[in-house]
Design brief:
The chain is of the alpha/beta class. It has one domain: 2-enoyl-CoA Hydratase, Chain A, domain 1 (Alpha-Beta Complex), CATH 3.90.226. Strands 1-2-3-5-7-9 form a 6-stranded mixed beta sheet, sandwiched between helices. Helix 1 links the parallel strand 2 and strand 3. Helix 1 runs parallel beside helix 3, helix 2 crosses helix 16 and helix 3 packs antiparallel against helix 15. The longest helix is centred in the first third of the chain and has 18 residues. The two termini are 35 Å apart.
């Protein structure tokens, strides 16, 4: 097996204090580093080992190539099982979602400094890997989105938790419309910590090697924050999301999804970004919108572990119903961009149908029960 065949590449960088920094690189650039189960199964034990190793001062996670950090979960692998296990237990889906969510939880609670170099496309499962890092770097080419409404899923990987923590109701707007964020937007909503031009990546890595680390998480995180800030800059333009904050909050105000949907489908604006957001909502799965809104309402005040357990049930619910497989077909397999949703309209999505997506299917995996 050559290096190009290995889903995740691992290395360590020596530092001035004798400690090492662990380096993990998602290694599927041809697939925009889409997160596969093989990747998860390589990352999780290595991160756990590095967490327990006193010689490791921190971790750096990035993606191979120049296009993407991680463009989401590798749903092409999952697609055949959705067609063959529609009304039965789906071991592949159970393994993928439970192991992915446990990995995301590990990153959120990692006991050492953790850098996510989020250059290029960051979507879905890639946001899940990035969101929990203690130091999240965005670059001039960062493009971040939670596009699940367009594939019959919902913003998972803890999205029901971290979207709630954005200013106002911006998180709900992003969840319902799949609207993309640039670097300035990502900083504004709190998913990024520092902007560094991608050309400075090697210099940042070299600075990590020259640093004296102390093996104490709080102190080392402060050192890392200063180091990144020393290489940081200001994004080229202001945040569109910040400028439109009042408009976005008004579009998704209230507890009536039908009223919110009516506003999103009839956005009166010359702003192309807003127009595209409204069109994405209108073209998306009505079930995904309803499920996303239900999770937004039900997860207020929940811990991250509780949210991930509920999202696991919701993910298996999506696997058991029509729209998730249909969305993958339309976007990733046949690529006709013409999904045939069932139910086809928001009025046909009943509360009972949403509840069926959220009910437990089988026993909760131990890895999630422990979160």
């Amino acid at each position: 097996m050559t290096a190009t065949d290995i889903p995740v590449l691992f290395d360590t960088v020596p530092t001035a204090s004798g400690h090492r920094f662990g380096i993990a690189t998602l290694n599927a650039p041809g697939a925009l580093n889409a997160l596969s189960l093989d990747m998860v199964r390589l990352l999780a034990p290595r991160l756990a080992d590095w967490a327990a190793d006193p010689s490791i001062a921190g971790v750096w996670l990035d993606g191979a190539g120049d296009k993407a950090f991680c463009a989401g979960g590798d749903l092409r692998q999952l697609y055949p099982t959705l067609r063959t296990h529609r009304h039965a237990a789906n071991p592949a889906a159970e393994a993928f979602f439970s192991e992915e969510y446990a990995l995301d939880h590990l990153i959120h609670h990692y006991p050492k400094p953790f850098v996510a170099w989020a250059h290029g496309i960051v979507m879905g499962g890639g946001v899940g890997l990035m969101a929990g890092a203690s130091h999240r770097v965005v670059t001039e080419r960062t493009r971040l989105a939670m596009p699940e409404v367009g594939i019959g899923l919902f913003p998972d990987v803890g999205g029901s938790w971290f979207l709630q923590r954005m200013p106002g109701r911006i998180g709900l707007f992003l969840a319902l419309t799949a609207a993309p964020l640039d670097a300035a937007d990502t900083l504004h909503v709190g998913l990024g910590d520092v902007y560094i031009p991608h050309a400075r990546k090697a210099a940042v890595r070299a600075a990590i090697g020259r640093t004296i680390w102390h093996g104490e998480a709080g102190e080392d995180r402060r050192h890392l924050r200063t180091l990144l800030a020393d290489h940081g800059d200001v994004p080229a333009g202001p945040s569109r999301v910040a400028a439109l904050a009042g408009t976005l909050d008004a579009l998704v105000a209230g507890d009536d999804l039908a009223a919110i949907g009516a506003r999103l489908r009839t956005i009166a604006s010359d702003d192309p970004w807003l127009q595209a957001a409204g069109a994405a909502f209108a073209h998306g799965s009505p079930t995904s919108a309803a499920l996303t809104f239900a999770l937004w309402q039900r997860t207020r005040g929940m811990t991250l572990g509780d949210v991930l357990r509920l999202e696991y049930q919701a993910a298996l619910g999506c696997c058991a119903h029509h729209d998730f497989a249909e969305g993958i077909r339309a976007v990733l397999v046949d690529k006709d961009r013409q999904p045939r949703w069932q139910p086809a309209t928001p009025d046909e999505v009943t509360p009972a149908f949403v509840d069926d997506h959220l009910r437990p299917r089988g026993d909760l995996p131990a890895r999630l029960a422990r979160l």
